[in-house]
Amino acid sequence: xxxxAGTQAKPVRMERPRSQWRDVWxxxxxxxxxxxxxxxxxxxxxxxxxxxxxxxEEKLTTTQTYLNKNKPPSLTYPLGTDHLGRDFFxxxxxxxxxxxxxxxxxxxxxxxxxxxxxxxxxxxxxxxxPLMRLTDLFLSLPLLPLLLVMVMLFRDALARIFxxxxxxxxxxxxxxxxxxxxxxxxxxxxxxLALKERxxxxxxxxxxxxxxxxxxxxxxxxxxxxxxVAATLDIASAIITESALSFLGLGFPPDFPTWGRLLxxxxxxxxxxxxxxxxxxxxxxxxxxxxxxxxxxxxxxxxPRIRGR
Amino acid sequence: MFDAAPRKLVEVKxxxxxxxxxxxxxxxxxxxxxxVDDVSFDILEGETLGLVGESGCGKSTCGRAxxxxxxxxxxxxxxxxxxxxxxxxxxxxxxxxxxxxxFQDPQASxxxxxxxADIIGEPLEEHTKLTRDEKLARVYELMDAVGLxxxxxNRYPHAFSGGQRQRIGIARALALNPKFIVCDEPxxxxxxxxxxxxxxxxxxxxxxxGLTYLFISHDLSMVRHIADRVAVMYLGRIVELAPRDQxxxxxxxxxxxxxxxxxxxxxxxxxxxxQRIILKGDVPSPANPPKGCNFCTRCPKVFDLCQxxxxxxxxxxxGRHVACHLYETQKETxxxxxxxxxxxxxxQGEQHET
Lengths: 309, 354
Ligand SMILES: Nc1ncnc2c1ncn2[C@@H]1O[C@H](COP(=O)(O)OP(=O)(O)OP(=O)(O)O)[C@@H](O)[C@H]1O
Ligand SMILES: [Mg+2]
Description:
The complex is a heterodimer of chains A (309) and B (354).
Chain A: H1 20-30, H2 32-49, H3 51-54, H4 62-68, H5 88-123, H6 125-140, H7 143-162, H8 164-178, H9 182-195, H10 199-205, H11 211-219, H12 224-247, H13 259-267, H14 275-302
Chain B: E1 8-23, E2 28-44, E3 48-52, H1 59-66, E4 74-79, E5 82-83, H2 89-95, E6 99-102, H3 116-127, H4 132-145, H5 162-174, E7 180-184, H6 192-209, E8 212-217, H7 220-226, E9 229-234, E10 237-243, H8 244-249, H9 254-261, H10 268-273, H11 304-308, E11 314-317, E12 320-322, H12 330-336, H13 340-353
Parallel strand pairs in B: 3-8, 3-9, 6-7, 7-8
Antiparallel strand pairs in B: 1-2, 1-4, 4-5, 9-10, 10-12, 11-12
Helix pairs in contact in B: 3-4, 3-5, 4-5, 5-6
């Protein structure tokens, strides 16, 4: 019990309300799918982040490489070797690092832009027209030529600042981010248009709440659900777009593995070695599925109407 | 002003709220929805003014425009000596605590993602510099005042009944010790037993805190119960404004008559004798109101002048205001309807229509 300041003299029950984040976590724990998804994602992240340090390094001479190529699975090479004699297991680990990082960062960028644009155009009538036309413009742009131009223009500049690999990473996540925010923007705008006419927003307005707090306190928390869905879908498409870019030679260099890259490399040997397509495919699917379930559980946990059911 | 007469707290003068209608690719303005059209009235300190009228007549819009939730097209709203309709943003924010609103739909007026403590505490968050503990103490105090159990502070709005939600809304409106509260159909979404509870709560709070209400409703019996004076609205305009008992005993405007004739009486004898006045036709669109009196298309006592000239609200008995040509003095009638021929032709036109 805490004593109250002020004029209150009579003893009152002054229990502080429970923290909401405890409730959120409690609800999240009851969502089986979300827990499984979380575990799977944790394992995958551990696999790609810690794995390469634990696993033996590859230092092969040219002859060894030649002799090693296309080996079947063995104890030294659990997933066999690829057509250049490289350990496929190690390549899966290294590739996952980039793929997961690209997926998460590109998703964050795309959701951030999408939510901001959607929020502004839904909330401020004056911005609605221009911003929605901008969205339409981006939707109608032919994506690949655009990406091509972006890579041509900025690759060297970014490589100079961040180094060749990080430079490519930055370029790719930004490129994917700025070309995939449109669906999120449209969804958010629709929700905001409906929300801002709700009476609780009007009630906050009647207090003289400035727009900034109106948005942060009342509108944003209520668009979480659709944003969460868009976000989980975005991760999947970002991983796949990255692989397409790498395949076209616009992304990471050919010897730099990513799951998407491995998948495309495996395609040409699919008849003889189907596992080279299956493993990266499986890894991508697992990541996407895990993130989807986590998003699902988080969405439920954040919604007080579902929480406690 | 130190005389015995109660002070005017709210003065509304010629308030107009038009919503533009736009059309075409260029969103050109093609007209206006005249939701509130030249409304004037006063509310005395400590009294309850009932505002009644059928759905869509502009009651909510009027209430919201008074609190400057919409920017009025024209007119003045003086609350406690300040013109709300013209105030700058910074001044307005300073004035906000004195005027609050209780909303029609208790479900929609509470943010589903905030706890009760946060909802009631929001006004304090915005307008005071209390510490967390002081704020919490005030929230609990308010919950006591509206009869909510303190143990509910942590719950979310969806876990409450309609009546309880409305209590939350009332507690929020009370948080900053307002002088004036607009109650926008606070009981319309509740069932009858709960309605009585909420109305009694509102009356109790009025006595306790000396509140002034603008009580918007379409439930005439509830208005009769709570209001001191009643304003009747039709299609964006006030047609009659009178003390409660006089209005209910002897309505003057034909629309008020029709409205009151629809209220069932408790006494079976009078109920048996009750003559319902059934109005014909629909309410005209507020985008295109009739040229003369707004009620002329449905009025049982319509005559030619009604088709041409909008009647203004004038005091015809002490405290009783009516906007109807029936009650205008002979001289004024003669002046306004100067052309007898025109009168005849419109009368015929009217007969053709019906
Ligand atoms: N934002 C708006 N834009 C355009 N027209 C509006 C807007 N708000 C209200 N209106 C119109 O103004 C008129 C009055 O609406 P208002 O909500 O004030 O009615 P009301 O008397 O409160 O009705 P109810 O009893 O159903 O609540 C209606 O014709 C409505 O269509
Ligand atoms: Mg209304």
